[in-house]
Design a protein that fits this description.
With 494 residues, this protein is mainly beta. It has 3 domains: 2-139, Jelly Rolls (Sandwich); 146-396, Alpha-Beta Barrel (TIM Barrel), CATH 3.20.20; 397-494, Immunoglobulins (Immunoglobulin-like). 11% of the residues lie in helices and 40% in strands. It contains 6 helices and 32 strands. The strands form 6 sheets. Strands 10, 13, 15, 21, 22, 25, 27, 28, 30, 31 and 32 form an 11-stranded mixed beta sheet that branches. Strands 14-16-17-18-19-20 form a 6-stranded mixed beta sheet. It has a 5-stranded antiparallel beta sheet with strand order 1-2-9-4-7, with no helix packed on it. A hairpin with a 2-residue loop joins β16 (231-236) and β17 (239-244). The longest helix is centred in the middle third of the chain and has 10 residues, at 187-196.
Length: 494
Amino acid sequence: MMIHILCRTLFMILACSLPVRAVDGLLQSLDLKGSITGEDHQSYVELPFEVPAGAERLTVSFSYSGREDRTTIDLGLVGPDGLVGWSGGNKASFTVAATDATPSYFAAPVKAGRWALLLGVPNIRGGVSSAYEARVDIYGAADAGLAFSVRDDSGAAGWYRGDLHSHSGHSDGSCASKAGKRVPCPVFRTFEAATAAGLDFFALSEHNTASHARALRDLGGYYDTLTLLPAREITTFYGHMNVFGTFAPLDFKLTNGGERIKALIDAAHKAGGLVSLNHPGLPSGEDCMGCGWVAKDTDFSKVDAIEVINGGTLRHTGGMVEHPRSGILFWEARLNEGHRMTAIGGSDNHDPDIAPGSPGAIAMPTTVVHAKGRDAAAILGGIRKGRVFVDASGMADSILDLALQVGGHTFVMGEVAPFTPSVTLSVTVKSASGGRIQIIENGTETKSASIDKNDLHTLSMDHVLGPDTTWVRANVRDAEGRLVLVGNPIYLAH
């Protein structure tokens, strides 16, 4: 067997033993190329490679020629502690990390040291030579490679609908078993409900654990209409927060009133995470331990998002979105303090059997994000930018978008416009006939307009902003006056 190994970085070719610098989490890429001949028939061969310190994930893709001659090469992986897995001929690629692994492989820490691809050759004919190529990508702490869903493409820019808060049996989610008993609910039941709701993306956000990452890896290939976001609900005595985009270890054990909250949020950001405060308007005490946000010394400038509508809260308020326990008042108070953070929503579902359309059912509420594509990075990027609205009613095709025109320039939700009193506001809506648009400045309604059709359309209006306005946004109320769509702000720079 002939083997050669190419070690590559984005900047230069280095010897494989030399340290390399992470770029977007990538520590090292290796190409393992070679060929087998008839002499390798019914044998096993290891292709060794070195994993550097700091590695947390490796991904492998493998291909070979000679199938027309009935050559068969099986594939496995050996780590410093022995066999990590064996996929034989059933997979051309796989990933392994401590949190999760492609089925056929164990989730295992990616330790520094000698690893090897294990090739099994059940058949190759005499006189035949078959070339193979393996690509090994080694990632560090940025948790790169967390693409749990198998998608044909990343999708086009547009609006994508999802649920950003849910639980399964990996934490406190439960459902009825086949015999009718309450049991920890398997993950696939939640994904079935999310698929039935027509969602584009979904976050399973278990309490203080990443154990569900393995289920995401197992099921992502099947639920390939969903973009599955890495997520956890970091549950402390002084508040709950979702961290999206990473499964890196985070120390949730806050004491003394939550004085270490700054370090926790900084650690989440360092790992590439997006931080959202969950149901911050709830009380925090014996009736709901740690539910409201009371962590002292919170630096809200570092908070990326606020869960303004929570499905669990809706269940307790009889479906009332506007309630003292809603997160909207908490969020708007932070906006008035000068902070810029995206309003999102999540069902906080703990039982996928809750009837669709009921408060706390999957997709009640729905977060709708304008993103460059439908992959996880694009969805999270869209949330960071703030072109997002929350649909408390779970309508399948609602739209709410706000634009502000001033000085020949157009600004959309999440952007910062220069303050000028006289502006033109354009509100694009869909599926809201009979309702009305509210224009909100610094928490106060300053204008409204009726909606007379369900089709996608835009209402433009000349408007004079108040002299102290630092943000403006739009809501939509239905024909009964209930708040159904919550828009994000356009910020004003004075």
